[in-house]
Write a structure and sequence with these properties.
Strand content: under 5%
Distance between the termini: 55 Å
Oligomer: single chain
Number of strands: 2
Structural class: mainly alpha
Strand order of the largest sheet: 1-2
Mean pLDDT: 93
Number of helices: 14
Order of helices and strands: HHHEEHHHHHHHHHHH
Shape: elongated
């Protein structure tokens, strides 16, 4: 199969960008950054600087006037700060969800996660004659338990056996396992946890899915600021969220979910994300509006 692109050295990559109209003040530094960050990773940041066909909307291999490699790097560095901040912010949310699930399911039974009889209707659902939802989840949980090298897991197994109470077991569950366990939980548990978050159970479940996708982007170094997010979470009637309902498919809307959870659950002062947004490089080619942030963004849920 023929390759669609020819190999180009870093020097040739710089020259290609220059011939297409991207200003590069320091070619040597540009080569160094291309070598350490990769041409196609950076291309996501200069893509909005390209000219587009008037009617078809197809991107041309020509840059807009004023486009520069330096701005590309500034946008990348902003996005890098944003990824790190998002990952840290979601870490707090994940820990809170773990604790709430462990506590509320533990109130039902210490081993509720192991016995479908203690769970809700969704746990019993099955497709055709295959395993039910809980059995599939339980297989993943047991695999995680076997693979864990955590000292507390080894200690607990030696002293008590492999059946860990839910408030211990949640510590080896990743976000996906926690989300599915929340979905399988009995309504009383789902509602208690959702109430603490100021949401209904279906709303919180949709938030957990959205935030898990965002966490995966952050963990895998994916571009965040200039992306369309496919899953739109269900919102409550909180006025702070109503004002951002129209941008839930952009990063600003997704960031608002993190901020809301931090405020609602008292996880932090919620200042880090607004501080990072304030570092967005000021320019006319790729404005902050690309994130979905309105002009009055600082008065919305991100800072309230």
């Amino acid at each position: 199969m023929a390759l669609s692109k020819d190999f180009k050295s870093y020097t040739e990559q710089v020259e290609l960008l220059r011939t297409r109209g991207l200003y590069i003040g320091d070619p040597d530094e540009a080569e160094h950054l291309l070598a350490s960050l990769n041409y196609y990773r950076l291309s996501g940041y200069w893509y909005p600087m390209r000219r587009f066909q008037p009617n078809g909307g197809i991107a041309l291999d020509v840059f807009k006037a004023g486009a520069s490699f330096e701005l590309v790097v500034e946008l990348y560095e902003f996005d890098e700060r944003l990824r790190h901040c998002v990952f840290g912010g979601l870490d707090r949310v994940e820990m809170a969800v773990r604790a709430m699930i462990g506590y509320e399911l533990g109130r039902i039974d210490p081993l509720a996660h192991l016995d479908v009889a203690y769970l809700g209707p969704r746990a019993h659902a099955r497709s055709c004659s295959g395993p039910n939802v809980h059995e599939v989840w339980l297989g993943k949980y047991r695999a995680a338990l076997r693979a864990s090298r955590e000292e507390f897991v080894t200690h607990y197994k030696k002293k008590h056996g492999s059946k860990m109470p839910i408030w211990v077991a949640v510590e080896i569950m990743d976000w996906g396992m926690l989300s599915h366990l929340y979905g399988m939980a009995p309504n009383i548990v789902r509602n208690r946890i959702a109430h603490r978050c100021g949401l209904s159970a279906p709303q919180l479940e949709s938030w957990l899915k959205s935030l898990n996708i965002m966490r995966n982007y952050a963990a895998h170094h994916a571009r965040m600021f200039n992306r369309v997010y496919d899953i739109k979470p269900k919102l409550n009637e909180d006025p702070r969220l109503v004002q951002v309902a129209g941008v839930m498919n952009r990063v600003f809307g997704q960031l608002s979910l993190i901020q809301y959870m931090h405020h609602q659950l008292g996880l932090s002062t919620a200042q880090r994300l607004p501080e990072v947004l304030n570092t967005f490089p000021d320019n006319d080619i790729v404005p902050l509006a690309r994130t979905g942030a309105p002009n009055h963004w600082s008065s919305l849920v991100l800072c309230s």
